Every structure is written in structure tokens, then in C-alpha cells.
Amino acid sequence: xxxxxxxxxxxxxxxVNWVSMDFSVSILPANPAENVSRDTWVEARLIHTFxxxxxxxxxxxxVMTLVVVALLYxxxxxxxxxxxxxxxxxxxxxxxxxxxxxxxxxRRSSGxxxxxxxxxxxxxxxxSAVIWGASSFLFLTAPLQEQFVCMLILIGMGGFAVGTxxxxxxxxxxYISGLNATLVAxxxxxxxxxxxxxxxxxxxxxxxxxxxxxxxxxxxxRRFHLAQRANFELQFENSKLIASLTEKSNAAEEAVAIKxxxxxxxxxxxxxxxxxxxxxxxWLVAEPEFVSQIxxxxxRCTQAVNDLFNSLFDLAGLxxxxxxxxxxxxxxxxxVQDLELQYAPLAAERGLQLRTRARPVTVRSxxxxxxxxxxxxxxxxxxxxxxxxxLLALRKRRGLWCLEVWDTGSGIDKAHQQAIFxxxxxxxxxxxxxxxGLGLAIVLRLSQALGHPVGLASRPERGSVFCVxxxxxxxxxx
Length: 478
Known about the structure:
Strand 1 and strand 2 (14-22) form a beta hairpin. The protein is an alpha+beta fold. It is built from 12 helices and 10 strands. The protein has a 6-stranded mixed beta sheet with strand order 3-9-10-8-7-5. The protein has a two-stranded antiparallel ribbon with strand order 1-2. Helix content is 63%, strand content 13%.
């Protein structure tokens, strides 16, 4: 929560002028970081799988190029053969360059950059398929044995594409279509220029066989792609489940640690006033004539024990049962006035000024829980302020209303600004040891239950400000 505010607050004997205060600590956790959607994650994994097989497929293509050249050398026109070989080598070089670019910059990438890369350059694989299919114009004029071997190579490349290219279906489809279309075109050209009925029938049957085979290859590639997609979708769900279980396990371990710290700190804080009560009671029994001196001490110790138990019961109640929020429209002027009446005596007792500023604004919240949250912030500010005063003010920040609690206390160093919302945490050597370290922990629980983010800004030796964001209730929503 980033906010810039400018406030001048005057307390008795103290002037505090804070300019450009930055609410850099947001206590209520924001929504979880946006995770990649399942479809985006799966699509990225499929592209990575395709690129992982791209280099082995390119190596196989290079070997097959040498085999075809060796087979056709001397059996077809040398010019046509070298033109085809040059085109095949250029397409392989383009594929190799793209693979290296991917390995250098996109191997660990996902989302739009990876998708844009493969979408922009997938035509290179289509071009390679067209060039290989065009080899039929060469080998169909060669002796029958060379024709048979070259045809097997093309058919094998189609089958090989099922395992290497079908991960990314658009590339596989265009590759198979390009290879099939040019091979059929070569056969059709042979049908038109060849002579003899037997040759025409054989070529025509070969065209039918090639088209049938390529239809089967497309179906096989699509099914293999769907199997890979289903596998990655299952991996995604498993990873989400593992992450959820890990988070819950960590939360359980943290809860155990918190409970242990809770019990240890509670026992420590309870031992001191109880020990003092025992000592004062023994003193009173031994010397009853000092009752006027001992009784106030017993009262203070009893009050400390009572305050600790009240805080423990409040926190335990928030931990044990989910809070039932009673959403209502709340008049903030009335809420601020009630808080002023409740805490003005405590401020006066400590020689501090409690000032309030509010305006007629209606918000949606739970009046009891919101009053409890703000009461804890006011109580915390009054306990930790030794001179000056406390200001409870309502202000609008970036379209949202904020209830702010300002104090002229000793401030909170950045190193402690997150930790003070933990149970029993008290800043050492800063005049804040008199509490039990539970008030702000309760504030955190209430802010999470109400959905009212709590921001904190502080300057050591100048004071602190806590800001509670509220959503204004418009007349149409009442």
C-alpha cells in the first residue's frame, strides 16, 4: 500500500510536521501472487518439449540429406540436385539458428515471449517440409530402386514427426501438410508427364496411398499431442496440489511454533505479576499496618493479570473460531465519537491529548469488530506515547477512506515494522515493554477478517501512523 500524505499535528509542547509520509508496510496480506494459468503453463511446456526435440530432429534431417544426395548423385540432373541440396542446407541452417536463439534466451521462458517466438518462426519448419517434399520432383525420375529408398525416407520423416513435432500441434500440422502437399504434387507431375497406362495406374495408386498414410499420420500426431497435453495438465494439477500441501504443512509448523512461543511468553508475563502478588500478600500478612501502601500494589498486579488474561482470551477466541462478520452500514462520525469517549480518560490519565477529526461518511463493515480494531490501535498508541498526543482522523486517500491513528511516540524502526504484528513481540529498549505484545496481533486478525488493509508508516523519534482502509458505501448500496 503506497500512499503519500501530508499532516501537521500539534500536541502539548510538541509539534510534529510529517511531510510525504510513505505507507510502505502493508499488514493485511494482498491477494496471492497471480499464478500462470493452467493453459498457459501447459502450452509453454508443449513448446519447450517441441524445442527439446528440435535439435535431434535437425541432426536426423542432416543425415538424410546426405543419404538422398548420395543416392541421386549421377542419376538425376546435377543442377536440380544441387539446387535442392542448397535449399535443404539453408532451411537446416535457419532451423539451427532458431534453436540456438531459443537455447540462449527462451529456454526458461514462458508466456507471451515464448508463444510469440514460436508463432513468428514456425514457418521455417513448414519451409523445410516443403523442400523435402519437393525432392519427389527429383527422385521420381531416378531408377526404381532409388525412388523406393527416397520414398521410404519421406514416409519415415512423416512418422518421425509424430514423435518430435506433435508436441506443438500448429508446427506439426503445417509440417505434415507441407510435406504431403509437395510430395503429392511431385507424384501428380509424374502422372502427367509419364507415359504408359501401367505407369499412370501405379502413380495414381501411389498418390492414394500417400494421402491415406498422411491422413493416418495427422490423426496419430493429434492423438499423441492430446496425450502429452493431458500429461502436462496432470503435472500442473499435481504441482498445485503439492504446493497447497506444502503451504498447509508450513502453516501447521508455523502454528505449532506460534503456540509454543505463545505459551512461553504468556507464562513469562504471568509469572511476574503473580510472583509480585505472592510477595505483597506475604508482606500484608506479616505487617498488616502497611495495608494502605500494599493494597494499591496488589491492585496493580491484579489488573496486570486481568489485562493479560483478557488479551489472551481475545486472541484465543480469534484463533479458535472463524469470526462471524455482521456487515452493516456504519456512520464513521458516530464511531469516532464513541472511540473518543472511551479512550479520552486513558489519554488524560497519561497527560496526553486525544484529538479526533471525522466527516459524515458511511462505510460497510462490522461495527463491533471495526471498533475493536480501532480501539486496539488507539490503546497501542496511547500506551507507547509519553508526550504530545494521539490523533484519530478520517481522510480520503486515492479514492478510499482511511481511519488513521497518529501518535508522537518514539516511532518504530523498519526492522521491527513487520514483527510487531506477531504475538508477544515487543520492541526492546524503546519504551514499549509495558504491554503484552498482543494488541497488534489482534489488529492483524481483525483486519484479515474484515478485509480492511492496515498500513503502517513510522519515523524513529518522531512517531507512527496506522491507516485502516475502508470502502465507502454509496447511497445505491445502502
